[in-house]
């Protein structure tokens, strides 16, 4: 009887362990993604698409929990958390990536890219040596780069003064990130840079702590900055992306099929996101006009002047960037 009782107990225990194991296997793996972008922005929408595709491709076994609008911190905070492994996925703008390695500054130098060569740049990032360079650079700082999220070209805006040309920027107190490049560009154009966290910028504009900022029209409108801005120029002074990155140790711990799902979902979400970005930028432009913001379109002569004024920035920072990286970016502009 004792043997029968013991056998039944062991069998019950084994059944319990099997049931627990089965339940654990059936429970979806949740990966947390933190990013600072506003609801409705192209970066935000791209990550929502990414989450949707991951759920679809994994048949619900992988879930991406998104914490946007700086809910759990700005770019730097979430990227440091992803490095430490306390957050699975992070998204950082390329200017903010300069805090993690100086080579990220190459993409943010003023006027090193032009919208008319944008497809060449995409090709180099998606399938060329430029993308490979940045993926390997991310690996060196403990991150796996999944997606070159489209952000766009930044434009200067103001809430206090009319800006129609480069000379109007002089003396303006402008919000920047901590990026040395952004700070240097502001100084080169005679502005007073004020590094302020993104989540505090609306209030800084509203209270007059800063006069203006440089960013994409789509992000500024999505973040409601169009409520306090009054003037803008289409300066397109630099192109920026948001890098979607995952803690490398966490990524490496996944099964090959899970890694494939994340990569494929990111690639498909990127194509979709780049496709909707021009429409969102146009809608933001129209919203600016509806809010009474005066937008000045610069002439070729204006752009030539801005290029010459910012030459010292390119000269200074190219000394800190490998010549091969500078050339890879330059080769996309042909």
Observed structural traits:
50% helix, single chain, 334 residues, alpha/beta
Topology overview:
Elements: H1 2-26, E1 29-34, H2 42-57, E2 62-67, H3 75-84, E3 89-93, H4 94-97, H5 118-127, H6 129-140, E4 143-153, E5 155-158, E6 173-176, H7 180-188, E7 192-195, H8 201-207, E8 212-215, H9 217-222, E9 231-233, E10 239-247, H10 248-253, H11 256-290, E11 294-296, H12 300-309, H13 311-318, H14 323-331
Parallel strand pairs: 1-2, 1-3, 6-7, 6-8, 9-11
Antiparallel strand pairs: 3-10, 4-10, 5-8, 5-9
Helix pairs in contact: 2-11, 5-6
The helix content, as a percent range, equals 40-55%
On the 0 to 100 scale, the average pLDDT is 93
Radius of gyration: 23 Å
Number of strands: 11
pLDDT under 50 segments (min length 5)?
16-24
- Sheet having the most strands: 6 strands, mixed
- What class would the helix/strand composition place it in? alpha/beta
Total helix count? 14
Our estimate of the beta-strand percent is 15-25%
- List the helices and strands in order: HEHEHEHHHEEEHEHEHEEHHEHHH
> Roughly how many Å apart are the termini?
86 Å
Side by side, the strands of the main sheet go: 7-6-8-5-9-11
User: Any idea what the shape is?
Assistant: globular
Describe this structure in words.
There is one protein chain. With 334 residues, the protein is an alpha/beta fold. It has 14 helices and eleven strands. The protein has helices at 2-26, 42-57, 75-84, 94-97, 118-127, 129-140, 180-188, 201-207, 217-222, 248-253, 256-290, 300-309, 311-318, 323-331; strands spanning 29-34, 62-67, 89-93, 143-153, 155-158, 173-176, 192-195, 212-215, 231-233, 239-247, 294-296. The strands form two sheets. A six-stranded mixed sheet has the order 7-6-8-5-9-11. Strands 2-1-3-10-4 form a five-stranded mixed sheet, sandwiched between helices. Strand 6 (173-176), helix 7 (180-188) and strand 7 form a beta-alpha-beta unit. Helix 2 (42-57) packs antiparallel against helix 11 and helix 5 (118-127) crosses helix 6. The model is unreliable at 16-24 (pLDDT under 50).
């Amino acid at each position: 009887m004792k043997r029968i009782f013991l056998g039944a107990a062991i069998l019950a225990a084994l059944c319990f362990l099997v049931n627990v194991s089965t339940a654990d296997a059936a429970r979806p793996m949740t990966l947390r993604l933190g990013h600072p972008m506003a609801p409705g922005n192209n970066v935000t929408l791209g990550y929502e698409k990414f989450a949707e595709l991951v759920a679809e491709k994994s048949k619900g076994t992988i879930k991406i929990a998104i914490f946007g609008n700086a809910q759990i911190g700005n770019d730097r905070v979430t990227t440091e958390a992803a490095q430490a492994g306390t957050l699975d996925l992070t998204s950082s703008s390329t200017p903010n990536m300069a805090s993690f390695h100086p080579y990220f500054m190459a993409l943010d130098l003023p006027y090193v890219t032009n919208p008319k060569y944008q497809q060449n740049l995409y090709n180099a990032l998606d399938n060329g040596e430029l993308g490979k360079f940045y993926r390997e650079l991310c690996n060196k700082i403990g991150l796996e780069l999944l997606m070159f999220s489209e952000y766009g070209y930044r434009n200067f805006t103001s809430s206090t003064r009319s800006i129609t040309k480069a000379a109007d920027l002089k003396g303006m107190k402008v919000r920047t990130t901590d990026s040395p490049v952004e700070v240097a560009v502001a100084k080169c154009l005679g502005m007073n840079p004020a590094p302020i966290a993104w989540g505090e910028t609306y209030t800084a504009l509203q209270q007059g702590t800063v006069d203006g900022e440089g960013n994409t029209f789509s992000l500024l409108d999505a973040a409601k900055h169009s409520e306090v801005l009054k003037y803008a120029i289409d300066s397109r002074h630099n192109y920026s992306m948001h890098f979607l990155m995952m803690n490398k140790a966490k990524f490496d711990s996944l099964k090959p099929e899970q890694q494939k799902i994340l990569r494929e979902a990111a690639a498909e979400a990127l194509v979709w996101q780049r496709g909707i970005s021009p429409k969102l930028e146009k809608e933001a432009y129209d919203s600016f006009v509806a809010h009474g913001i005066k937008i000045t379109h610069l002439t070729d002569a204006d752009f030539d002047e801005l290029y010459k004024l910012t030459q010292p920035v390119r000269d200074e920072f190219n000394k800190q960037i490998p010549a091969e990286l500078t050339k890879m970016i330059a080769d996309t502009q042909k």
